[in-house]
Write a structure and sequence with these properties.
single chain, alpha/beta, seven-stranded parallel sheet
Length: 217
């Protein structure tokens, strides 16, 4: 299948791209950074997702769309995390080969934690996911999102490099750890390739952080 993914040059996006390539799929990556993958079945388009998307038709028509590109920068969060994801979907969702769409959101979409525009952009992304699930169901297309909690990625380097801070954030989870990007990639593969019955759902992967509570009798 043809997989189109934004943000494949690092972190979760890179892990997802590598997972699909290992499974024998063709991957088209769109990222403002240079390619981080060297594989005969990988095609990289180095461009800012705010500037539009390449045409992929015929033998290159997308089967799976994965919107993973994002930013923590407050002044860019709504445009990059939400508006660009909407334009990405609109650009490719009429592909006759389309089978699945996946958005990488955030646990912040559920609890409003972190930065205000970042949380709002991710909550908006989950809402948009449900809208597309309703719209594309008639075509047999599944549409879902993944909301990761803490993940060991370059974007979180400032936390990972501080022993004290990293210990503190891990202590906020039930399992006492953060997820690896490769774990998120496994869920992404399942939701887009294996799954044919789950749609309109947001999958929370946060090591139990949101469930954690101190019961006082």
């Amino acid at each position: 299948m043809n997989i189109v993914i934004t943000g494949p040059s690092q972190g979760i996006g890179l892990a997802i791209a590598e997972k699909f390539l290992r499974e024998g799929h063709r991957v088209f990556g769109i990222d403002k950074e240079p390619a981080a993958v060297d594989h005969p079945e990988y095609t990289h388009f180095q461009r800012d997702i705010r500037d539009g998307f390449p045409r992929l038709e015929g033998a290159d028509a997308p089967h799976v769309l994965i919107s993973c590109a994002g930013t923590l920068e407050e002044e860019e969060a709504i445009v990059v995390n939400l508006e660009a994801a909407i334009r990405f979907t609109e650009h490719y969702e009429d592909s006759p080969a389309l089978q699945s769409v996946l958005y990488i959101a955030s646990a912040s979409a559920r609890n409003g934690a972190e930065f205000p525009r970042y949380a709002a952009s991710k909550a908006g992304l989950v809402g948009y996911m449900k809208n597309r699930a309703l719209h594309l169901a008639a075509c047999g297309v599944t549409v879902n999102s993944i909301s990761p909690g803490g993940v060991v990625t370059p974007a979180n380097r400032h936390i990972l490099e501080s022993e004290e801070l990293y210990a503190a954030v891990k202590a906020e989870t039930l399992l006492g750890k953060w997820a690896a990007p490769e774990e998120i990639a496994e869920f992404a593969y399942f939701l887009t390739v294996v799954n044919r019955s789950m749609t309109g759902e947001d999958l929370l992967i946060d090591n139990g952080e949101m469930l954690r509570s101190n019961f006082i009798w």
